[in-house]
Amino acid sequence: MSDAPLVLWFRRDLRLGDHPMLARAVASGRPLVPLFILDPETEALGAAAKWRLGLSLADFARRLEGLGSRLILRRGPALAVLEQVLAETGAMGVHWSRLYDAGSIARDGAVKAALRARGLEAVSHEGFLLHEPWQVATGQGGFYRVYTPYWNAVKGRDVAAPEPAPKRLSGPAVWPQSDVLADWQMGAAMRRGAGVCLPFQVVGEDAAQARLAAFLETRVQDYKAARDFPARDATSRLSENLTYGEIGPRSIWHGGWRAMQDGAAGAEHFLKELVWREFAWHLMYHTPHMAEANWREDWQGFPWREDNADAEAWRRGMTGEPFVDAAMREMYVTGTMHNRARMIVASYLTKHLMTDWRVGLRWFADCLTDWDAAANAMGWQWVAGCGPDAAPYFRVFNPAGQAEKFDADGAYRKRFLDPRSPEARRYFEAVPLSWQLAPDQPAPRPLIALDRGRERALAAYAARKS
DNA sequence: CAGCACTTGAT
DNA sequence: TCAAGTGCT
């Protein structure tokens, strides 16, 4: 039955081009049934990411319809749904693009085993990363724990050229029934209201490609220096699109590579940032405990504070530290936060407020529309001191010093704190009543003096060693 | 085993 | 100038 339909199980690869699984499926000549499953793992996404995924699904469904196809939406445990759809369509196989977190690996492995045991085809494909985590190894054959050697190992490697998007997709004689996306209520958990972040989202494959092209056209030149200044529009902002697979890493790699050969000054640095994502997934695959436990296991027992009132002030952007509060409000109102600001708020929570990095990670998971489990686990642990990197414990960011350095004119702080700015106004419209925040409220007194917080953190780190 | 290098800092 | 351990070749 070589003309039996094939089910394409889409997850974090909501695009048509640069898509190995889709390209191979089209080449097989079989009728294709694109499927998205709202399974328990996906239901568990943070509020903002789940809502943003809904936008991506709507866009992807439209793109598929433009090719004469559809996106079938079903809800339930993945294996049960796949078996139903296989039975309904007479399909003989399922294909998907691999993911690399422990939960996905367990789920997909079980799906593969169960389907193959019934004589069905179950095939996973690359495409989420530039390099499979098991294909990058040190001279000793192990995995990398340090970024720079990892970069040196992959920077010269060939990356397959992105496949062009198919022009048409053939479908089954009879389509299986599909849920209606709106019924899934993907934005239901957004306490701030689903529409708040909408103006800040750039959704879908066309938009992501345009974003990449625009970045490579101009901003990449000055990227290396300008990316550190949070008030400037100097970064690509592609993390949002990468998260849902609206663009693939190979498209970005080849774009960046071309820019580098054309002499764009910041292009290599841009490629390095893309490879940081890659490195995070490399670590996530080889050390899956990174998602939840201290990556350095000898940090067990470190006296982090559990969730507490200071952490709640941090979440609300009410620490009294202007740069920190601006950044936390940026995330709440836009669904994203500038990279440098992420480091500073993470340092402030874990060092000055001595609070467990997982408290911060959970809030990021709830608020970020570019939520990436590996990049966040690695980043939080790096800042906290328990993650990969040799000696970060004495690296305590001073938010006031950082503000002076990277937001000297105060433009970033004003944008999210000054009630006259549109972004700040949006913030005050969005916060839940229970937060009791008003535009005319005076800035809170700092939770802790910066030098005292620094000393307290360093003392705790010193005590850990003895 | 030696030697080298280490994303983003602070005072 | 500090601080200093460790991962990698």
Automatic annotation (TrEMBL):
<feature type="binding site">
    <location>
        <position position="223"/>
    </location>
    <ligand>
        <name>FAD</name>
    </ligand>
</feature>
<feature type="site" description="Electron transfer via tryptophanyl radical">
    <location>
        <position position="357"/>
    </location>
</feature>
<dbReference type="InterPro" id="IPR036155">
    <property type="entry name" value="Crypto/Photolyase_N_sf"/>
</dbReference>
<feature type="binding site">
    <location>
        <begin position="370"/>
        <end position="372"/>
    </location>
    <ligand>
        <name>FAD</name>
    </ligand>
</feature>
<keyword id="KW-0456">Lyase</keyword>
<dbReference type="InterPro" id="IPR014729">
    <property type="entry name" value="Rossmann-like_a/b/a_fold"/>
</dbReference>
<keyword id="KW-0274">FAD</keyword>
<feature type="site" description="Electron transfer via tryptophanyl radical">
    <location>
        <position position="380"/>
    </location>
</feature>
<dbReference type="GO" id="GO:0003904">
    <property type="term" value="F:deoxyribodipyrimidine photo-lyase activity"/>
</dbReference>
<dbReference type="GO" id="GO:0071949">
    <property type="term" value="F:FAD binding"/>
</dbReference>
<dbReference type="InterPro" id="IPR002081">
    <property type="entry name" value="Cryptochrome/DNA_photolyase_1"/>
</dbReference>
<dbReference type="GO" id="GO:0009416">
    <property type="term" value="P:response to light stimulus"/>
</dbReference>
<feature type="domain" description="Photolyase/cryptochrome alpha/beta">
    <location>
        <begin position="4"/>
        <end position="130"/>
    </location>
</feature>
<feature type="binding site">
    <location>
        <position position="270"/>
    </location>
    <ligand>
        <name>FAD</name>
    </ligand>
</feature>
<protein>
    <submittedName>
        <fullName>Deoxyribodipyrimidine photo-lyase</fullName>
    </submittedName>
</protein>
<dbReference type="GO" id="GO:0003677">
    <property type="term" value="F:DNA binding"/>
</dbReference>
<comment type="similarity">
    <text>Belongs to the DNA photolyase family.</text>
</comment>
<dbReference type="Pfam" id="PF03441">
    <property type="entry name" value="FAD_binding_7"/>
</dbReference>
<dbReference type="Pfam" id="PF00875">
    <property type="entry name" value="DNA_photolyase"/>
</dbReference>
<keyword id="KW-0285">Flavoprotein</keyword>
<keyword id="KW-0157">Chromophore</keyword>
<feature type="site" description="Electron transfer via tryptophanyl radical">
    <location>
        <position position="304"/>
    </location>
</feature>
<dbReference type="InterPro" id="IPR036134">
    <property type="entry name" value="Crypto/Photolyase_FAD-like_sf"/>
</dbReference>
<feature type="binding site">
    <location>
        <begin position="235"/>
        <end position="239"/>
    </location>
    <ligand>
        <name>FAD</name>
    </ligand>
</feature>
<dbReference type="InterPro" id="IPR006050">
    <property type="entry name" value="DNA_photolyase_N"/>
</dbReference>
<dbReference type="InterPro" id="IPR005101">
    <property type="entry name" value="Cryptochr/Photolyase_FAD-bd"/>
</dbReference>
